[in-house]
Write a structure and sequence with these properties.
Elements: H1 2-14, H2 16-53, E1 59-63, H3 68-80, E2 84-101, E3 104-114, E4 125-129, E5 137-141, H4 142-146, E6 155-161, E7 167-179, E8 190-195, H5 197-206, E9 212-220, H6 227-241, E10 247-251, H7 252-305, H8 310-351, H9 361-383, H10 391-395, H11 418-429, H12 431-460, H13 463-470, E11 476-480, H14 483-493, E12 499-504, E13 506-512, E14 517-524, E15 536-539, E16 547-551, H15 552-558, E17 565-570, E18 573-583, E19 592-596, H16 597-603, E20 611-616, H17 622-628, E21 636-641, H18 642-686, H19 688-696, H20 701-739, H21 753-775, H22 783-788
Parallel strand pairs: 3-8, 5-7, 14-19, 16-18
Antiparallel strand pairs: 1-9, 1-10, 2-3, 2-6, 2-9, 4-7, 6-7, 11-20, 11-21, 12-20, 13-14, 13-17, 15-18, 16-19, 17-18
Helix pairs in contact: 1-8, 2-7, 2-8, 2-9, 2-18, 7-8, 7-9, 7-12, 7-18, 8-9, 8-18, 11-20, 12-18, 12-20, 12-21, 18-19, 18-21, 20-21
Length: about 800
Amino acid sequence: MQSVWQLVKAQFHKSKSQAVSFFVIVLVGAILLNIGLVITHNYDRNYDQHADRLNSAGAILAIKSQDEKLVNKLMTAMQEDDRSAEVEKRDILFATATLAYGDGEQTRNMVFMNQQDRPNISQIDYIEYSSDAYEHPIYLPWLFHTGGNYQLGDSFEMEIVLMSGEKETKIYQVAGFFEEPILGTVNSTISGVVLPAQEYQDLSQSFDGKIDGTIFNAILKENKTMGENFVGTYNTLLEDYDSNVYHDSSFYLMVKQARTMTSSIGSMIIIGFSMIIVAVVLVMVKFRIGNTIEEEIRNMGVQKAIGYSSHQIISSLIVQFLILTLLGSITGIGVSYLILPSISNMFALQTGIVWNQGFDLVSAFISVVGISLMVILTAYLSARKIGKLTPITAIRTGIATHSFKNNPFPLETTKGNLPMLLAAKNFIHQIRLNIMIMFVVMGVSFAAMFAMVMYYNISVESTKFVEMVSTEVPTVQINALDEAGADRLLASLQNTKGVRKAAYYDQVRASIGTKDSEVFCYIMDDFSALDNQLAVYKGRFPKHDNEIAINGLLAKNMNKNIGDTVTLKKGTAEIEYLITGFSQGSNYMGHEAMLTSKAFQQLDSSYHALCIYVYLDKGVDTVNFIEDLDQYSDDIAKTTNAQLQIESMLGVYQNIVTIIAFIIMLITVAIVSIALYMVVKTAVIRKRQEFGIQKAIGYTTRQLVLETVYTFLPVVFIGTILGCLLGKVGLNAMLSVLFSSIGMMKINFAIPTFWMIGVGSAIFLFGLLITVIVSIRIRKISPYNMLKE
């Protein structure tokens, strides 16, 4: 072992800068891999642990009623349900509220909880309190702080609207923030806030008890998986009992998926990017060992002649890289825990989850052992040819008998620029190395394309992203008070100046399938009036009264295909529909369907749409238009500026994507720099004697620098082109796989050619710059020094 260690020290002494470069790139790979694994292994589990600590409900149902008969009926039914383990009810206030959130607005079904209550199920964990006293205090979910930018003491204004059209604006001061597993989010249809007892009573009295309600929290025997069917059952029961009772529901699995969506996708991206870096590490190992054998072949022959075995020489090369890999991996894991809090804060913009990262031994073990084993295997496969090397062959620099390789581009007969001809010869002689470098550049170019496409489609031109998330986005959404008022409104709006079009587009809850899964039905007279004709990505929109389109994720979970039938239920009624297409959208984690008005009336004959989507002409001021709707106030229950809601949603994603894009671009620069630095520097050192001879016979430094640059220029250029083209062709397919878990089944992001050329040009020019900078060291080579050596 002592003899092997002496060889290892000699190798370190000869290649210090390359050892540092290798250490750095292993460090970056280990940082990313460990971060990705820790998030994958712990983020979801952290949510479950918080939920268990707060005794989270598996399903909740909120109703705007305290009718004793109805409440007792629901309570008894839930308690006797074989799926429930424990059920708790308590009084709440329940209404629709519009509030400022982030850069826009949110309209939520809001549960107002009394601070005096001490629920056993879905307990409230206060994270931050203000020591100041306020006139009208309110406590908000932690997500309103991380994603909504609210701070202690800020003014919190809400417009509370009833379906009767009655509305009132309330202004509170933020006195604290809390966590609650189901209601502490804006990622579902229902959210919750906490009011001190006096504020709670004042709010109830200001609406004369019209918003008094009840919430049912149920712990289920399979608490994290049975919630969907459970709420479907009681939504159906409630519709059957009294369809006029305003209600909303949610369940654990849907809220968890919505709140951990960003972390799940982010961790996959980080792990994928770390694999690109690990691939670069393996390429560097193969290149360095191959180059070491070529440079040190005579020394290896001497070593064998004086008694070193092939095993010892091979082991010295493997140990050299293993030491660097272990040091880089272990250091990378340590550094990753310094970065993880920032990653957690970034995810908290969308999740609102408090995540205190502890040390994850499993992720650390996989990171260190995984990278080390791949390096050991690559090093062994690259170095094993040393075993066939005899001392005499090694002393002859590897020539056993003769070596008459083909001479491409013979200088005496080939016309052309001399440095380019020499570069072409070098390019062919080191073709295997060039292919490896090309794959490295292709990988980082693909990663850069990913960052560009995400940034462009979310932060620059977000139309396609919004359509894939929300299915259809109008300018203004209007909810009418009653059927007659809805018809009057629609007729008036369709003839209003500045209105491009107006149409009924309603949303109604129902149950689907044999397991009573909850589904949100989008209902329209004619779906050809939609702006987003790509909402159905496979098949077609429903046209007839026996047809339905369902979300692709829902179809996958139900094992349904186009042409199959599916049963829709509302109350005691149930109708079988023919599936004509698959839609996409992530509003309700894929629990979506589309029907025409006549089709839904087969299920509910009393149905009449009350929601109108209004699309304004370009240049029409939305705020002024909404103010002008006051003339229809007798018919309007609620008006929503849909564009502000979209801005509120986009603001969070734009911040996250901007950070991720910046990090990917930064790492891309680092990988290109390190990889080209190592390869070009090694090439210059290896050809030092050849360059000295060339200078002695008249070559200038400029010609030799150009020769080196021209050698690597095609590699960087081809790798960049292939990476960008791969991104152009394959990114949408890859993103479809990433986002399919939340209902976005067929991603169709724009990939602008101009931006693609910009990314490719930047990578190519940067690679060229690094190659030139490293090649300039040729000027220090002189024939005189070569003779002295």
